[in-house]
Amino acid sequence: MLVEFDNISDDARIWIYQANRSFSDEELEEINSKLSNFITQWTAHGSDLEAAFDIKYKRFIILAVDQSKQMATGCSIDASVHFIQQLEKDYNVDLMDKMNVSYKQGEYVAYKDLKAFRKMAKDRAVTGNTIVFNNLVTTKAEFLENWEVPAKESWHGRFLS
Questions:
Q1: Are the C-beta atoms of residues 44 and 76 closer than 8 Å to each other?
Q2: 17, 20, 27, 39: which could join 95 in a potential S-S bond, CB 3.0 to 4.6 Å?
Q3: 3-state per-residue secondary structure call for the chain
Q4: Is 153 exposed, middle or buried (0-12, 13-18, 19+ CB in 10 A)?
């Protein structure tokens, strides 16, 4: 069952998929439609999942499931991964690579591989105050509080000297 992201429980389990580029407005319209269709049909052991999605900065796809209503199971999680992999193929974009970093440069969202981000940290091109996206958060509450944080308050901080 599709619900609005704002209305799903703060305890909802989330998964964040970071694109290696921004989506165009046309792509976003299509992806929104595909996400709505997927979530409407998303089930676990035949039971509907109360789920939501959001897309932030034309780059991050966030899936959320209220597990107090129905737990996401291995099969349902696999279905979501297959759906994301299909989006990768449809839009020639990388959504599954966790070894990349997105961070803010003003209002712009930059994207670097981890090696380049480490070098930027060493060269002080990014600092502890640089806003990074902590895609390791696991609940909506953590997402709201700890997704966009200064690098020094995230796992990214280990690269800062």
A1: yes
A2: 17
A3: CECCHHHCCCCCEEEEEECCCCCCHHHHHHHHHHHHHHHHHCEECCEECCEEEEEECCCEEEEEECCCCCCCCHHHHHHHHHHHHHHHHHHCCCCCCCCEEEEEECCEEEEEEHHHHHHHHHCCCCCCCCEEECCCCCEHHHHHHHCEEEHHHCHHHHHCC
A4: middle
Query: What is the per-residue pLDDT for 161?
Result: 66
Residue 131: its pLDDT value, please? 95
Task: Provide the sign of the torsion angle of the four alpha carbons 148, 49, 78, 33, taken in this order.
Answer: negative
Whole-number pLDDT of residue 71:
79
Q: d(Cα 8, Cα 88) in Å, to the nearest integer?
A: 26
Cα gap 107→11, rounded to integer Å: 29
Give residue-wise pLDDT tens across range 28-54: 999 999 999 999 999 888 888 899 999
Q: Which residues of 114-152 are buried (b: 16+ CB within 10 A; e: fewer)?
A: eeebbebbeeeebeeebbbbbbebebbeebeeebbbebe
